[in-house]
Design goal:
The complex is a heterodimer of chains A (111) and B (115).
Chain A: E1 4-5, E2 11-14, E3 19-25, E4 33-38, E5 45-50, E6 54-58, E7 61-66, E8 71-76, E9 85-93, E10 98-101, E11 105-110
Parallel strand pairs in A: 2-11
Antiparallel strand pairs in A: 1-3, 3-8, 4-5, 4-9, 6-7, 7-8, 9-10, 9-11
Chain B: E1 4-7, E2 10-13, E3 19-25, E4 31-38, E5 42-49, E6 56-57, E7 64-68, E8 74-78, E9 87-94, E10 105-106, E11 110-114
Parallel strand pairs in B: 2-11
Antiparallel strand pairs in B: 1-3, 3-8, 4-5, 4-9, 5-6, 7-8, 9-10, 9-11
Classes of the chains: A mainly beta (111), B mainly beta (115).
Amino acid sequence: QKEVEQNSGPLSVPEGAIASLNCTYSDRGSQSFFWYRQYSGKSPELIMFIYSNGDKEDGRFTAQLNKASQYVSLLIRDSQPSDSATYLCAVLDTGRRALTFGSGTRLQVQP
Amino acid sequence: NAGVTQTPKFQVLKTGQSMTLQCAQDMNHNSMYWYRQDPGMGLRLIYYSASEGTTDKGEVPNGYNVSRLNKREFSLRLESAAPSQTSVYFCASSEALGPRLEELFFGEGSRLTVL
């Protein structure tokens, strides 16, 4: 069973701070990694994807990948109350060609 | 452009009843998926269809059947609903070209309650 693990939270940060969300995965052969954001009662939406070791930046978001440690993270700089949501880490299951999702981390940004 | 459309959005069933969740995408995507989401469990893959004419089991297929009717449509059927199938069901589609999976586009979800 290929697994994706996340701390369920809630992770609470003050407005303007950096939020750090973490994810580990069990399949050492995984090549593609995704972060989705899901507001309460809504469907998930893609924030970022990362394929290579290192950092990938997009606006206030930075995804970090360390394949040796089987670790993916998402940093949100200058956190805003509108960033309050559940963040889902997902890993491509190459055997099934479908995404395996973690259970998500709930982020609360306090005004 | 509607994207991924799921029907119905809400449904209440009694144990043992059957129903079909419908999903259609207008993005000409090859791959389609059905996930269920339970509190604290994240999204779990039920079935997927990598291309028209093919379907495969995911992580939690028991109690479900699927049909890839054509490239646009992918339906999920519960033959004899059980309370354990109370969940939010999401249909998704993707282009899925090459060795890497492209972005998943999700429908709005179907909230199913089985009494």
